[in-house]
From TrEMBL:
<keyword id="KW-0472">Membrane</keyword>
<keyword id="KW-1003">Cell membrane</keyword>
<feature type="transmembrane region" description="Helical">
    <location>
        <begin position="107"/>
        <end position="128"/>
    </location>
</feature>
<feature type="transmembrane region" description="Helical">
    <location>
        <begin position="64"/>
        <end position="87"/>
    </location>
</feature>
<feature type="transmembrane region" description="Helical">
    <location>
        <begin position="310"/>
        <end position="332"/>
    </location>
</feature>
<feature type="transmembrane region" description="Helical">
    <location>
        <begin position="32"/>
        <end position="52"/>
    </location>
</feature>
<feature type="transmembrane region" description="Helical">
    <location>
        <begin position="380"/>
        <end position="403"/>
    </location>
</feature>
<dbReference type="InterPro" id="IPR050833">
    <property type="entry name" value="Poly_Biosynth_Transport"/>
</dbReference>
<keyword id="KW-0812">Transmembrane</keyword>
<protein>
    <recommendedName>
        <fullName>O-antigen/teichoic acid export membrane protein</fullName>
    </recommendedName>
</protein>
<keyword id="KW-1133">Transmembrane helix</keyword>
<feature type="transmembrane region" description="Helical">
    <location>
        <begin position="244"/>
        <end position="266"/>
    </location>
</feature>
<feature type="transmembrane region" description="Helical">
    <location>
        <begin position="409"/>
        <end position="431"/>
    </location>
</feature>
<feature type="transmembrane region" description="Helical">
    <location>
        <begin position="352"/>
        <end position="368"/>
    </location>
</feature>
<feature type="transmembrane region" description="Helical">
    <location>
        <begin position="135"/>
        <end position="153"/>
    </location>
</feature>
<feature type="transmembrane region" description="Helical">
    <location>
        <begin position="272"/>
        <end position="290"/>
    </location>
</feature>
<feature type="transmembrane region" description="Helical">
    <location>
        <begin position="173"/>
        <end position="200"/>
    </location>
</feature>
């Protein structure tokens, strides 16, 4: 797999066009189907691990998966996030050249992160005496991180070029490869964390195989053009990265804090209950990947009427979906408890309701964060992220020792509620007032 995949293919001219409600609906539907596929895949894999693996093994897998999100967050903040903000203002030829030049930077960054996290996971596994071979775990995790980074870049460029159906084709191939690989592991009786990570890494490569375009002319990687492309995204990435890392720590540090205070089994309980609500989070992500380029153009045009309409429609739609999903899940919990979760995870019902409240607040907050990102407001996101992290650490230090796993969820709810008010009540109205005063 060479660092010149179909991401560099000639872009669709439609990206630079106006915002169409029909186009947004069609692309959102394709993106929603894609995220539903990925959500279903992660959900099924998680349930298989919950059912067949020990709590400790599932806890280790959960923490490695979250560490993988950390690595993806770094790449998103430094490359694909700024690129999504920059690309709508460029011509198709400029977008093609920029995405090809940044693919080289993405390879360099993803290789470095894969090696760093692979070695780190092996060392931690050795010191903590994790029930997995440290070297095999480190190699498998590194392969997964690197391959996943390539597929994510591929997906990001496709979303920027308004081609969510191309993303869907890639992810269907990825999901099928994961399903086949996990099936082979189960039949062979080798269902271990390193083996699962290796299967997921190879499945990422399989997902991109048929989508690779070798016909498009490769960009000339002259040093000056490469440095200019990196500088253009780093101008935003230097603010986006600290904010993204702070946001990751705010959203996921509870898993490591709970494991440190209550044991690895507690992180398994938290992740098992949260897993049941993850389709909500992935639906919000599906919306944001499609809408962000359009929101960037609306901000640039200062089209407040359509921004307001899109904002309220998005929040209403996501909240309605959240309530409906929680109701259905609550009705299905007795069956899930008896036939899927098993006795190891008895008593998760109240935690599922607590997570439902968290995701309802998180969805509305995430839409507000996407608005800030689309308006290039990485400094404000960093400011809110630091404030939220401080509140998270204080809340977790107080509530986890007092209420155990409940305390971890309560801490997250407090943080999300604070961030929701900060973004929608303070930051977004402030930006509108500034824009109106600067451009009467």
């Amino acid at each position: 797999m060479a660092p010149s995949t179909q991401m560099a293919e000639r872009p669709a001219p439609e990206v630079g066009g106006g915002v169409s409600n029909k186009k947004l609906l069609t692309h959102s539907l394709a993106s929603l189907i894609d995220q539903a596929l990925l959500s279903g895949l992660n959900f099924a894999l998680g349930l298989v691990l919950i059912r067949l693996a020990t709590k400790e093994s599932y806890g280790v897998y959960s923490q490695l998966y979250v560490a993988g999100i950390f690595a993806s967050t770094v790449i998103e903040a430094l490359i694909t996030g700024p690129l999504t903000t920059i690309a709508p203002g460029k011509t198709p030829e400029q977008r093609a050249r920029l995405s090809t030049l940044l693919l080289r930077f993405q390879w360099q960054l993803s290789i470095g992160l894969a090696l760093l996290f692979g070695v780190g996971s092996a060392i931690v596994a050795k010191v903590a005496k994790v029930d997995a071979h440290p070297i095999l775990l480190g190699i498998a995790f590194a392969i997964y991180l690197f391959a996943n980074a390539q597929r994510e870049y591929h997906r990001s460029i496709s979303f920027i070029e308004a081609r969510p159906r191309r993303v869907l084709h890639t992810d269907v191939a990825y999901a099928l490869a994961v399903a086949v690989g996990v099936g082979v592991l189960l039949l062979a009786g080798y269902f271990t964390v390193p083996a699962i990570l290796l299967v997921m890494g190879l499945a990422n490569i399989a997902g991109m195989w048929r989508s690779t375009d070798h016909g498009y002319a490769r960009a000339q990687h002259d040093p000056a053009a490469f440095r200019a492309a990196v500088a253009e995204v780093m101008q935003r990435g230097r603010w986006a990265l600290p904010g993204a890392l702070v946001a990751w720590a705010t959203n996921y540090s509870y898993l490591y804090l709970a494991a440190a205070v209550l044991g690895v089994a507690a992180s398994a309980d938290l992740n098992a209950s949260r897993l049941l609500l993850m389709p909500i989070s992935l639906s919000v992500l599906a919306w944001s990947r499609v809408a962000r380029p359009m929101v960037s153009r609306l901000f640039a045009a200062r089209d407040w009427k359509h921004l307001d309409r899109l904002a309220w429609a998005s929040v209403a739609g996501i909240e309605a979906l959240t309530v409906l999903y929680v109701i259905v899940l609550w009705l299905a919990l007795p069956w899930l408890q008896a036939h899927v979760l098993g006795a190891k995870y008895h008593g998760l019902e109240p935690m599922v309701l607590a997570w439902g409240g968290y995701f309802a607040i998180n969805a509305a907050r995430w839409i507000g964060s996407s608005w800030l990102t689309s308006n290039d407001q990485y400094k404000l996101l960093l400011l809110s992220g630091v404030a939220c992290l401080v509140i998270m650490l204080i809340s977790a230090a107080v509530f986890i020792p007092l209420y155990g796993t409940w305390g971890a969820i309560l801490s997250l709810i407090i943080v999300e509620a604070f961030d929701l008010l900060l973004i929608w009540v303070v930051f977004l109205p402030m930006l509108r007032r500034k824009s109106k005063s600067a451009h009467p």
